[in-house]
Design brief:
By secondary structure, the chain is α+β, with helices and mostly antiparallel strands. It contains 12 helices and 8 strands. It has 2 domains: 163 residues, no CATH class; 108 residues, no CATH class.
């Protein structure tokens, strides 16, 4: 009986990984759906240091965040998936107003959620009565911790998941399901070693030597997550980033392995990438809707008024 169960687990695991590859996922690893005890202690320390800024939601639902069984009854397996998003095209080099590479194309939440649901449907078709939930930044899930437990990579000092021979320009998402599978070995070694380049280059000093990222200092927090307008007289500096920031990733030696995403999963929004300084500075609400809102851009995470405020801070 045990042999048959083990055989079924292996068959289901192979089906899941092959299907994930066909759907365009670059990496797929699987971990048992156990409680995250060590991660909970580190996260609580991060919260106690007020590193979450005004993102109050990060201080809520802590029991859900570290126990997958509270997100899905009888949870047995966490399937972690990663997709490369390193773009083939670069932003207009003559403009000073920078946006993060993950915003060059379509909103990854929409693209990956659809693929996750296709994968879940396929698991149900092949394995019978399976219950599951799909997550793309849509619930309190410790996605980087699960990716590490599933053997995809390690969490770097800048807080990003780093995949060896690939880098950190990847989107992460998860399926939690209620059947057992064959599990991958956790990625044990932190290969950052003595490198501190991300800590040293961060212009706002957001990354500590212990690998804690202080959101209140982070450029991406200031220009996206902090919903309030930035006080032009408060001394904040976005260092020309109007949406997100890639400084700590661009300097990471592991990202020398980054290669352009070639499946065209997210596309390229040329209208945004080709904007000149003058076009950024004169961006009207109508153009914002045309370039960003109507193109399923992830930049719709901030309102037009917030983007204009960011541009004004960078313009000074």
């Amino acid at each position: 009986m045990r042999t048959q169960k083990s055989s079924n687990n292996k068959i289901n695991t192979n089906i899941i990984k092959k299907t994930a590859k066909k759907l365009g996922f670059d990496f797929c690893g699987i971990a048992p759906a156990t409680k995250l005890t060590t991660e909970k202690h580190r996260y609580e320390k991060w919260l106690s240091m007020k590193c979450h800024g005004k993102m109050g939601y990060l201080n809520k639902n802590l029991s859900l965040r570290f126990n997958p069984s509270l997100l899905l009854d009888n949870a047995r397996s966490v399937i972690s998936l990663a997709v490369n998003y390193y773009p083939a095209k670069k932003q207009n080099p003559e403009t000073k107003y920078r946006i993060s590479k993950y915003a060059y194309g379509k909103d990854y939440h929409l693209v990956l959620k659809e693929k996750l649901l296709h994968l879940l449907d396929h698991i149900y078709e092949q394995s019978g009565n399976v219950n599951g939930r799909a997550f793309v930044d849509s619930a309190p899930v410790m996605e980087k911790s699960w990716a590490q437990k599933a053997g995809l990579g390690w969490i770097g000092k800048n807080g990003c998941l780093i995949i060896p021979q690939y880098g950190s320009f990847v989107f992460l998402c998860e399926l939690i399901i209620d059947i057992e599978l064959e599990y991958d070995k956790p990625f044990q070694k932190n290969r950052c070693g003595n490198c501190t380049l991300c800590i040293e280059i961060c212009p706002s000093g957001a990354i500590s030597k212990e690998g804690f990222v202080n959101a209140q200092k982070c450029i991406s927090y200031l220009n996206i997550e902090m919903k309030d307008h930035i006080d032009e007289n408060a001394g904040h500096n976005l260092f020309n980033w109007v949406f997100g920031c890639d400084i700590c990733q661009d300097i990471c030696p592991w990202n020398r392995f980054a290669r352009p995403e070639n499946k065209n999963l997210f596309g390229i929004n040329k209208k945004i990438l080709d904007l000149t300084n003058k076009q950024w500075e004169n961006l009207s609400k109508e153009k914002y809707i045309s370039y960003i809102k109507n193109t399923n851009s992830v930049m719709t995470r901030i309102k037009y008024e917030k983007l204009k405020n960011n541009i004004q801070i960078c313009r000074k």
